[in-house]
Amino acid sequence: MSMSLSAFATAPAAGAIDTTRASGTDRLKVQQLSHAFRTADGVDVPIFERLDFSVKSGEIVSIVGRSGAGKSTLFNLVSGLIQPQSGHVSVSAREDGSAGRIAYMLQKDLLMPWRTVLQNAVLGIELYRKVKAADYERARQMLSRYGLGTVADAYPHSLSGGMRQRVALTRTLLVDPTLVLLDEPFSALDYETRLALEDDVMALREQSGTSVVLVTHDIEEAIAVSDRVILLGGRPARIEDDIDVRLTTHGPRTAVSAREAPEFRTFHSRVWNGLRSHTIQHSGATA
Question: What are the ABC transporter domain coordinates in residue numbering (predicted)?
Fold first, then answer.
């Protein structure tokens, strides 16, 4: 398995991820995961306690929780950037037996200022192999889809924050990952662009069977794009709810049609009430 950090190829820590144990249709399997961070005084503060969940091939799962619940730390553990103190993370290979590939898109775009938009877009591919003419053409097509076709030869300093984030997403998706980790990727985007990119995330499952795990504070976004929403709560964090999102839409499910589904408000209330409940409980416990 290989890992792409916002499309930067980075080998995971030895032994951090097992690519042989995830079986069946599970793309990602997290088992009894526990982790803590150590303070300057040498005190271990637990972040997670015995987390268990899986993500199937082609499934989109959103993780929501209060600030400080450890959502980004969870991504670092899944990607192999840090190793868990106990428990296990396994990522399956591709259906043809070849190694799977994780793409991890951070909140920051990490664009190289000396490279053009097009050169930044193909950087992930470049770190794996020689970039071909077909790769540049595919990159140009994707950039055009995101409204960046006219700035392909521009440099990052001339782009808005939202435009830079769209370049980063293009770079992430161009490496053909089997598992995509998205950490608040659309927070800097205008609403119309956010809806368009949500549609693109949902299209990944149809086009390539790619699995997606999304960390977001936007409850509407989580419900609209996801097959499941996992609610993290408490300290140390644990899974308080694992919601199977089933929406009745007119025609194909899109970012817009999902929000118009009759069940949407019910799911929104369930997630919101869960977040509110566990935030109050946590505040009361630490007051």
Answer: 28-259
